[in-house]
Amino acid sequence: MLLHIPEVLSKEQVAGMRGAMEAAEWSDGRQTVGPQGAKVKRNQQLPDASPLRRELGEIVVAALARHPLYHAAALPMRTLSPRFNRYEGGGEYGFHIDGAVMATGDSDVQVRSDISCTLFLSEPEEYDGGELIVSDTYGEHEVKLPAGDAIVYPSSSLHKVTPVTRGARIASFFWVQSLVRDDSARRLLLELDTAIRNLSASAADQASILQLTGVYHNLLRRWAET
Length: 226
Ligand code: NI
Description:
The protein is an alpha+beta fold and about 230 residues long. The protein has helices at about 10-20, 35-40, 50-65, 70-75, 185-200, 205-225; strands spanning about 5, 25-30, 40, 45, 75-80, 85-90, 90-95, 100-105, 110, 115-120, 130, 130-135, 140-145, 150-155, 160, 165, 170-180. The strands form four sheets. Strands 1, 2, 4, 5, 6, 10, 14 and 17 form an eight-stranded antiparallel sheet that branches. The chain has a five-stranded antiparallel sheet with strand order 3-7-15-12-13. Strands 8-9 form a two-stranded antiparallel ribbon. The chain is globular. Bound molecules: nickel (II) ion (NI). Nickel (II) ion binds near residues 96 and 159.
């Protein structure tokens, strides 16, 4: 499930983060991938050990925690501390699949990557190229979102970032281990959750809403791994 999560960060929050990153030292993005990824990755990242990365990552995680659609879609159990990248001057990341198990240097916590998330921090008009292309059984999807918006997609998808030929594309990216490992099961739960919310906002029969809510929780109980 490829899903657009709008307005994770406000424009003010984005501006604050962009300002803080202006004076930052960036490192070669190939430092955090294996040999296969290193062949096709050409970008820069805030170093894992950078206090600024941790500080900004905490802002991202706190913003996600307040976002109901993100929660309903991702059902997050563990989230890897967000990283930040910058593509410019033809920088790109060719087709690859993200590693299955991830860890950051600042903790022993390992995360099985069920969901990949990119949070855009540059406006689309600030750069040319830099589309995130996610390939799934329905074909290739091109993603370029306003600053502050995020996209979530299954980590099992082949994906790439096209070359940035003008300006700079700055984003945050991270992985999530979901309570529900199976993407299609998560999608069913999101659809059921959305329908229940919509019915609750209407004058629908309360007993039926209660029954559907029970079905939601009993499916989650069946599928959740903790
Ligand atoms: Ni990737």
